[in-house]
Amino acid sequence: xxxxxxxxxxxxxxxxxxxAMRLIEAAAELPIPLRLIGGTAVWYRCPSxxxxxxxxxxxxxxxxxxxxxxxxxxxxxxxNGYEADRLFNALHGAxxxxxxxxxxxxxVDVLLDRFVMCHTLDLKYRLLVDGTTVPLTDLLLTKAQVxxxxxxxxxxxxxxxxDHPVGGPEGxxxxxxxxxxxxxxxxxxxxxxTLAEVHTAVEGIGLQPDQVATVASTIAALIAALxxxxxxxxxxxxxxxxxxxxxxxxxxxxxx
Length: 256
Fold this sequence. Notes:
By secondary structure, the protein is of the alpha+beta class. The chain has 10 helices and 7 strands. The termini are far apart.
């Protein structure tokens, strides 16, 4: 048998984004992908999220990883100062793992293979695209799939749209957007509603006029891309039903 894996080790840091970075760096030594999602992923991706008016507090840390390595993931977090929610993890460990910072009670949530909230995104094969967070477009989708947006969600989405143009190697991937929504009318419908709500809210956040214009332009480009993208037969059938039948799931808890 080979030597046991080095699971890292150390005490959690007080600053939540810095703690997220510590965990990402420690996990890089493991043969499993651990990628940020949620607010700390936006903080990492978006300089505008680190200063007013888009800066916000971060209470918890959310990750994506792969289900087949859930035991290694659990050992990693325990070695890095976190207590496992053993009952929750025993019941749901094939889809999700929960941990708590043993010093200050900060929660860590690790979703496995699929992002499941108001809509479901299969991200299992997207975790090797980037090294710190899920890919930019997938990160945007995890935020845009929320049915009831709160102020934190809106600020995170605005930061993503402000700092990242459509297209290009560092931009929002329209091909990925079309791939994910072409057969899922419900997800596309929610994304459209989210973008419309953000468009309405952005002027009241306190951005400069040119920044508001940038966000509005990016939203317009995304809507145009959704309009132009080919749709599957499944999408067309579901579109006929529309909002007469609920098109989203009720999440277990509000997204942080």
